[in-house]
Amino acid sequence: MTFAFIEPHATTWPVRLMCRVLGVSPSGDYGWRSRPESARSASNRQLLDDVQRIHAEHQRRYGSPRLHAALRAEGRTASRGRVERLMRRHGIRALAGRRFRPCTTDSRHDLPIASNLLKQLFSAALPNQVWLADITYLPTAEGWLYLAAVLDLASRKIVGWSMRDHMRTELTSAALMMATQRQRPPAGLICHSDRGSQYAAEAYRRQLADIHAIPSMSRAGCCYDNAPMESFFHTLKVELLHQRRWATRDEACRDLFAYIAGYYNRQRLHSALGYITPEQAERNAC
């Protein structure tokens, strides 16, 4: 293990100095390096190359569970424990961020409130049976950019979204319209949201009625009643927001579109889906 430390650091410190500090002989280090590479060492080196490649391809967003799933999808049979040990040994970590929830819910209104039909039972047999909707906001140098999103509970795919410099009903209506036009849901779809005025507004309720959807709303102040949507927003902020500084709202819009449409829906392996992508989950359900 001592000689294994010396070799990768030989360009940083003199080998003789490291040998002296670690209490080994330079001849012993030379003998260790002169031995033929073992099959296990060669396998670990190749595995490390693949781990580093996948980690870079996903912009450091993957930890060991997703990296292991991605390796399996490529036909590699390494165990998850082995992947974890390699990552720990070489300092390969997933992005991490603080948990916070900006308050975008204005429930101080006299508009109609729908019953909570889900009651934290977050399951759906098929796509377009249950949609979740919510709003978050992201900072730019120009000011806040508000994002409304619609998530399909069965596939975890973001089926609709919209971005504005405000969070009036137009924001949520545009996201719902996009989801409706793309998915063409059947009658009886449940659309769950918080109690915000944007979701209780007459225009939004009329949209739901037009597609024969059933509204559902969380309890007051309980973000756990819309947990999968909260989880998506947290993921977006860790993997995108915390890595960017946007000068304009237009810049943020472009990055959000690329992340949602190009990465999250199509490439990112989702733990709740057994480590397949939302689009794969949607296709598998057809």
UniProtKB/TrEMBL annotation:
A GO term, aspect molecular function: nucleic acid binding
UniProt keyword Endoplasmic reticulum present: no
Domain Integrase catalytic: 123-285
Listed name of the protein: Transposase
Stretch forming the signal peptide: none
Keywords attached to this entry: Plasmid
Gene3D superfamilies: Ribonuclease H-like superfamily/Ribonuclease H (3.30.420.10)
InterPro entries: HTH-like_dom (IPR025948), Integrase_cat-core (IPR001584), RNaseH-like_sf (IPR012337), RNaseH_sf (IPR036397), Transpos_IS3 (IPR048020), Transposase_IS3/IS150/IS904 (IPR050900)
GO BP of this protein: DNA integration
Domain of life, per lineage: Bacteria
